[in-house]
Each structure stands twice: as C-alpha cells, then as structure tokens.
Write a structure and sequence with these properties.
The complex is a heterodimer. Chain A is of the alpha/beta class. Chain A has 19 helices and 13 strands. Chain A has a 5-stranded mixed beta sheet. Chain B is globular and about 70 Å long. By secondary structure, chain B is an all-alpha fold. The chains are: A alpha/beta, B mainly alpha.
Chain lengths: ~475, ~375
C-alpha cells in the first residue's frame, strides 16, 4: 500500500510540474519591435544586410535562421504553422513551394510597391513567378560566365579566350590547351582545359526548352537536348576537356556532388571555369591568402617569373555561342518569398522592398554576390578591388550576358526539378558506361517524366481534365 | 465479477499505464493507422491535390513503377552484408569472452606501458618521414593495445562497442573522408600497398561509382548497371558491417556465451576436443536462439535501413544505386509531396518484412529447436 502511495505521490508531483510548465511560459522580451525570421544561407554578407535592414526599419527586428534551410524542412515547418516569415528559394524550388501552398502570392501587392517583374531583369521573372503569379523578389540574380586563369594560359603560351567565341572556337582552344598541358606540364601535373561546361550550359546556349509551349515534357524528341548531351559526352570522353563526376571527386578534397570545382579552379587545376561572378568571393579569398604568403616570404608578385607561382590572375568572357543562334544563358536567382501563413507577412513585405532598394544593392555589389534584383542598381557600390581579379570587367561581362539570359519554360504538369532529376540520373549512367547511346538515355528520362506526370494527373482531377482538354484522351492513356 | 479492490487496482494500473499508452496511441498506433488509410487516398502536401479515396491505385502504380524494383534490389543487395556482420559479431564475442592471461596486474601495467611507449617513436619517425596518416594509425593502435592490455577484455569490449553509441551522422562524415577516392585513407593505403607489391592498381571510386559486385549480371537497363567492381553500394555495405559488428549483436552473443553451462566445455575438455570442435559442437549450437533473434532483427532493420547513408552521404546516387526503399519513401512523401504513394511504399515494405519474418519463424525456429 505504501508503494502505491509513493507512486501516486510521484504521479501527482509530475502532474503538478507539467501544469506549472504549461502555465509558466517564458516572459516576452521587452523589445517592442516586430520580429521577422529569414531563412537563408549563412554567408558572412548576411549579417551586414540584416543590420542595414534593421537600421532602416527600427520597428522591425529581422534575424537569420540558416539552420532551417532545405525544401522539405521549410515545407513541413510552414504547413505545420511554425515556419519562418521569409525564406530563400531557387527557380527549381518555386514549383514545389507554390504547390505546397506556402508561398504568399504577392502579384497585386507587388505592383503597388514597385516590385513587379516589369521593373526587374528581363528573362528573370520565371525565377520568382509561377503560372503568371509572383511569389517573391530576388535577393540576387545572375548568369554564368566563362572565367579563365591567365597564369595557366601564359604558362602554356595559349591565346586568351575571345569575348564571344563560337562553340567550335571554344573546342579548338580547349583542345590546344589540353595538348599543351600534356606537352609542357610534368606527368600528374596536367590541368583540365575547363570545368562546368556541362549539358545544362550547352542546352541553354542552344536556347533549349524542356517543355513544349503546351507544357508537355519533350526530352526524347528535342534536338537541342540531344546535341547538348552528345557534346557533354564528347567533352568528357572524346576531347577530355573536363573531368567526369568521379574524376572531379578524385581531384576534390572536400564537398559533395559536383562541388569543389571553385577550389580546384583557384588551385590552378582548370584553365577555364563556368560560374557566376559571385565565385569572386572565393577567388578573392584565395588571392589574398596568396598575397599574404608572398609578403610573409618577402617576395613581390611582379618578381615571380613562373606564371603558375604568381597569385591568381583572372579574366572573364561570355560563354560560347552556337553559330547561327543568338547566345543563351540560364538566369538564376536566389529569391526571398513570404510564408503565406506568417502572421507578420505584411511586415515582411518591407524586406522585399529593401531587396529592391539602393542600400541592399550596394551591399550586395560590395560583396560580389551576383547582381541585385533591381537592374537600376546593377552598378551601385561596385568596388574595383585588385586588378588581378578583374572585378569590374567581370561585372560588365555578366551584365552583357544578362542581355541574352532566359529562364526555362515551365509546365503545369511537372516541375523543372523533376526534369533535372531525371536527366541527372541518366548523366550518372552515361558516366558509368560511356558506350550507352545518348538517344536511349533521353528516352529513359522521358519515360521517367511521363510516369511522374501520369501520377500527378491521377492525383489531381483538375489537372487531369486540363491535360485531357489540351492533349486529348489518347495522349493521357498513352502515358506509362 | 470484478471485485471493488480489483477494480481499484485496475484503475491505478491504468493510471500508471496512461502516459505510455496515450503516447503510444497518439504517436505510434495513430500514425500507423493514418498511413494505412492514407495509402488508399490521393493524400498530398500539395493543396491543389484534393484528398480523395483512390482505392488500390497507389499500389497498382507501385507495382508498375520500375524504380520500386530497382530500389528493392538495392535494399536486398545491402542486406547481403548481414551474414558477414553476424559472423563478425560472433567471432568478436567469442574472442572477447575470454580474458588475456597476464598473471598479475603489474604485468598488465608493464605490457600496457610498453605498447603505448613503443608506438610513440614509431609514429614519430613516420610523421617526420611524411606518412602522417600511417603515423596516426600506429599511434592509435598503440593506445588501443595499451588500454586493452591494461583493462583486459572489458577495454576491448568498450572499444568495439564505441561505434554503436557514436552519433550516426558523425561516423558517416568520417567514412566520407575515408572513402574520398583521392585523399581518403582507404585508397591511399591500397595504393601504397599495391605500389609496394608492384601491382598495377586503379583504386575504386567508392561513393561515386555505380559498379557493383553483381555488375556482371544481365540486369535490366534501368538498374543502372555500371559493370563489375566495387561501388557506392559496397562502400555503404562495408560501413554498415563495421558499425554493426561490435554493436548490439556482439553484446547479445556475449550474454549468450556467458549463459552456456561450463560443464559442457569441461566434458569436451575431458574428451580432448579442440578449440574448433568446442565452438562447432557447443558454442554455436548453444547460441542458436541468440543467432535466430539476431537474424530476425537484422533482416527487419536491414530492410528498413539505408536512409541515413543515402540522405547524408550520397543523396541516393550515383544514378539511384544507393537509394533504398526507406529513402524512396522519404523522397516520395517529402520531396514529391505525395504522401499517399509514400505510405503505400511503406506498407508494401511492411508486408515484405512481415513475410520474411514469418518465413524466418517457420524455418529458423525449426533449426533452433533442433
């Protein structure tokens, strides 16, 4: 009996403690400002951007939550009502967020606040609009450019790339680079002519589209995609212009899939590199480390005769074009969207306005983090920096490339992320077995997409009705 | 007829059971039933998809989904490491169930100090000569031997159990470094060894390779057959074996060994049985119930496994070769937001596990009783 009493007493104590815990909530802080939580990356530049916003808006208190990044995390948090007020997303993620119903449609509000796409970069609107509706404003925008290592070109005595080469000129240059590298560099020290000139870049240069104008996926009857993948294959296995994923991993000391190319380029393992001019953040760090090391050794950079021992010396040109075609570059943005369930979503609009303003744009340009979303401030606050990094020219090349930038067409039936996943799986197969014919790989990718689309249609009667209305019943039944 | 005292006792019992029972109903049984119901609906996180009953549609889709079979193949393939893992646990338990005979604690201390101090100059020389990783290995071996000699089998049991209570994510990060094709300790060691032996050798790509030891089989094209060799699946299998050899299975075997009546060994000694005969005719048969339990649990956890590795190491790649059914459930539910389909996959996985477990009971039990 005494045991029962003891246990009951314990139970009572635990119950009382639970009640106290439930009632005794943490006292709210005395800070009268409205808190706003922004899920973004933890770039060192974020803190300055947040501080500037908080100074401009004394009634608001913006803070960063970089631990909640990730599509799934954000969707689950927002749908369960504990999501952030603002979060960053890419053009590949917008479909998932809109379909999950967590992004606030600001189309009408944006018009009044001067945030509408007509005030943004032409061709970039698909990064933050979906099915004609606007869901945020870009934190930054950019296109890839071709950055090259002048030291390596000097060492191999190869002419620098021209401002706008044709793809044939690029292949000839890269081949000459590769041959010179084999000839002049010691075994094991050879460098690859290029990194990152993959099927996506080539497909964009061909101004290709994954979906037809009605929204059906078109991978297996798509000359641009076929050409892009075949060139990708040739670059890897015929011309050896760039490393395969496995080779890139072999070269890299850290990082996940496809990462490490920036570090490897900075370390002089590639002659050319396809990337946004935001990569200057990393190159600048390497350059300053190299300068510090030379200073420590008491060496002046101009006294060094061997080019590869000199600190990083960069140049930038446009990505090659295909003859007879207008150049094409994929525009990408990091976009800030507002959680539709946020109780402070009206206040969060102030942050989008801030992104479109001069203060933020200057900070962005100072940190080299691509171009501001507002083209009016594209040059605001650009600092020349060390001449060896060619910062101003790189900004100019990027802005020139923006003229030819475009975003891929979207489809109501599938997401772009599905397309990229399907093709990437086939690229893995290509790299594992170079003898696999490219048309066969594309057929596999197309079939996979049609299977996903069929499932999407079967789950959503309205979507299915739209598909049948557009393509007919037989097209629906022919889906796997 | 329940007596008032019994009723009162029942009330008190229920009161004490309530916290656990409520938790079980809310967080285990409830979600299980919801997922079962959900697998017959178009349940999605997309607001544009209305929730409606679709009958067996998800299951029909699943059976016509080529990815499902590929990921099932991956799951079963990774499971083939289970016998090696169990054999390793058994061998380890047999070794660790005997104590080193060092006569006195003073002798143990002297040997322990010798091992520790002996490893120091060797690793120092290796470090100076530029073999940093080998130096580290020698030093680690020295410290482990030293502690093992001093604390005897308890020390070694602790060492072998260490991976089990280390956070999965941290061991995964460690293995990612080990598997680095260029700088990883594994390929570095293999290359150094082959160079020493004069054997031409191209190291495996580990987590970046689609090859497999069954790559010579004429598998369907969508199985991403990268040919014969060691690839990402083998890399994950090796890591899993490493983590499980010294884990709970070893502890279960150790407990089983300690329960074997010593008279059996005494009788075997009188009959002049060798060490192998003692193991073959006493230890192994006496451990049959433990082995049966370990096999059943191993198969269940193996079929559920591979998620952490796929999520943290490979994102299911390359070309889906490390995507297991558990990771597929996650991608369907939380990447494609199709919870109904994800629930259907999880219920098919459950039926598969139950079927295999029943087979285990049906046939495994018979061997155990024999």
């Amino acid at each position: 009996m005494s045991t029962t009493r003891t246990l009951l007493t314990l139970f009572g104590v635990l119950l009382a403690l639970s009640v106290i815990a439930a009632v005794w909530r943490p006292r709210s802080t005395d800070d009268p400002r409205t808190p706003l939580v922004w899920v973004s990356d933890n770039s060192p530049a974020r803190q300055a951007q947040i501080e500037a916003f908080n100074r401009l808006h004394p009634e608001l208190r913006l803070r960063l939550d970089y631990g909640s990044r990730g599509t799934q995390k954000i969707i689950l948090q927002c749908t369960s009502g504990v999501g952030p007020d603002l979060f960053d997303y890419s053009s590949e993620e917008i479909g998932a967020f809109v379909e999950a119903g967590i992004l606030w449609d600001i189309t009408e509000v944006a018009e009044g606040l001067g945030l509408s796409p007509k005030n943004g970069w032409p061709g970039a609107e698909r990064n933050y609009t979906h099915q004609g509706r606007q869901y945020g404003y870009p934190c930054n925008t950019g296109v890839p450019i071709l950055i090259f290592n002048r030291n390596l070109f000097d060492l191999l005595e190869i002419d620098y790339p021209k401002q706008l080469m044709t793809i044939g000129e690029f292949i000839a240059l890269a081949k000459a680079f590769g041959e010179a590298s084999q000839r002049k560099l010691p075994p094991g020290g050879q460098v690859y002519p290029c990194a990152g000139m993959d099927w996506k870049i080539l497909f964009s240069a061909l101004r290709g589209e994954f979906f037809d104008p009605l929204g059906a996926p078109n991978l297996d009857n798509n000359p641009a995609l076929l050409q892009a993948l075949e060139l990708h294959h040739q670059f890897l296995f015929k011309y050896r212009l760039m490393p395969t994923t496995i080779e890139a991993r072999t070269m890299s000391g850290q990082g996940g899939w496809g990462s490490g190319n920036i570090n490897q380029f900075a370390a002089g393992r590639f002659g050319m590199f396809v990337g946004g001019h935001w990569t200057l953040i990393a190159f600048s760090r390497t350059y300053h480390q190299q300068i510090a090391e030379l200073q420590r050794r008491g060496v002046h950079p101009e006294e060094i005769s061997t080019p590869t021992e000199r600190p990083l010396h960069l140049g930038a040109v446009l990505i090659p074009r295909f003859p007879g075609r207008q150049p094409g570059y994929p525009i990408s943005s990091r976009v800030a969207g507002i959680n539709v369930r946020s109780p402070r979503r009206e206040e969060a609009l102030a942050f989008l306005q801030y992104l479109a303003g001069n203060t933020y744009s200057e900070l962005l340009n100072q940190s080299c983090d691509s171009l501001p979303g507002n083209p009016g401030y594209a040059d605001a606050g650009v600092e020349a920096g060390p001449p060896a990094l060619d910062r101003v020219a790189m900004q100019a090349v990027t802005m020139e490339a923006m003229r030819y930038g475009y975003s891929f067409r979207e489809s109501p039936f599938l997401q772009l992320a599905d397309v990229h996943r399907a093709i990437s799986a086939q690229i893995d197969r290509m790299e594992a077995d170079p003898d696999l014919p490219v048309p066969g790989l594309l057929r596999h990718a197309q079939k996979e997409l049609e299977r996903i689309m069929r499932r999407n249609l079967d789950r959503n009667p309205a979507l299915k009705a739209r598909y049948i209305e557009t393509f007919g019943t037989s097209a629906y039944h022919s889906l796997p | 007829m329940i007596q008032p005292v019994q009723r009162r006792n029942l009330g008190i019992a229920l009161l004490f059971l309530a916290p656990n029972l409520i938790g079980f109903l809310l967080f285990t049984l409830g979600p299980i039933l919801i997922s079962l119901g959900g697998s017959f609906t178009s349940w999605s996180l997309k607001p544009s998809v209305p929730l409606r009953f679709v009958g067996l549609q998800n299951y029909v889709d699943l059976l016509s989904d080529p990815n499902f079979y590929f990921y099932l193949y991956n799951t079963v393939y990774l499971l083939t490491g289970l016998p090696i893992s169990i054999a390793g646990s058994l061998a380890l338990a047999v070794l660790l169930s005997s104590r080193l005979n060092l006569q006195t604690s003073r002798a143990a201390l002297i040997l322990s100090l010798t091992a520790a101090l002996g490893s120091l100059p060797v690793s120092g020389i290796l470090m100076i000569s530029g073999s940093g990783s080998t130096a580290f290995l020698v030093l680690a071996l020295g410290v482990i031997t030293s502690l093992g000699l001093y604390f005897n089998s308890i020390g070694y049991r602790t060492f072998y159990y260490l991976p089990h209570f280390t956070a999965g994510a941290s061991t995964i990060l460690l293995w990612m470094q080990l598997y680095n094709p260029s700088f990883g300790l594994i390929n570095q060691s293999l290359l150094a060894l082959c160079e020493f032996l004069g054997i031409p050798f191209s190291p495996p790509g580990w987590l970046t390779s689609t090859r497999s030891l069954l790559g010579f089989l004429p598998l369907p094209a969508h199985f991403n057959n990268g040919g014969f060799g060691v690839g990402a699946r083998e890399a994950i299998m090796i890591m899993t074996i490493w983590a499980s050899v010294g884990g709970n299975n070893m502890i279960l075997y150790l407990a089983g060994i300690s329960n074997i009546p010593p008279e059996l060994y005494e009788a075997a000694d009188i009959d002049g049985a060798s060490g192998w005969q003692r193991f073959r005719h006493i230890t192994f048969p006496q451990l049959a119930p433990t082995t049966f339990f370990i096999v059943v649990m191993g198969v269940i956890s193996g079929l559920q496994g591979g998620f952490e590795q796929a999520k943290l190491m490979t994102e299911g790649g390359p070309a889906g070769t490390t995507t297991t059914l558990s990771y597929y459930i996650y991608t369907q539910g939380f990447e494609l937001l199709d919870l109904g389909y994800g629930a259907a996959v999880s219920w098919v996985l459950f039926l598969l596990m139950m079927g295999i477990t029943l087979l285990n009971w049906r046939y495994g039990n018979r061997h155990q009783n024999q």
